[in-house]
Design a protein that fits this description.
With 170 residues, this protein is of the alpha+beta class. It contains 5 helices and 8 strands. The longest helix has 17 residues.
Amino acid sequence: MLDGGRRVRCTWGRIGNTPAAKEFRFDDRSEAKTFMNRKFNEKLRKGYTEQAVVADDKPTKLARLVVASADVRTEPAEKKHGRIYFWMVDGEGQIDVMQEFGKRYGEHETDAKIWRLLIPHVLRRLGKPSDLPVSWSQYAGCTCPCSPGFIVRGLNVDVHVHIPRTKTTH
């Protein structure tokens, strides 16, 4: 979403080719968000997969460093496809990153795009192909929105990525 959330830019195309794009303008943010979610879910139902677009290499390098410092734990998949969940860990315990973002901002879809950059690095670390089809779900773990995460087709384990939280000083 662009322009304070009143514009939505849709891009599409075959992987490896230059994508096509079209912008839609709305009177307010809620109309734009409704349109974006409806269009996104429509494409997923048709079998499309979302691809992360990285404009330069800086996010990729940062994602690789974050995953390298993480404690990655696996367990047998509870469902047909494996899941990836992200956690922040500090001296006081662990925090479900996706759930915390939702409580603060209420926009899991936006946050998911940021965390999606980490997924190829997590898959490589597990010795899996980094291009497995991935979809975001607010209901990844169960039928209530308490377990947001990523569903990865072709992954036979559930993955918990525990990222160490570093303290910053100002």
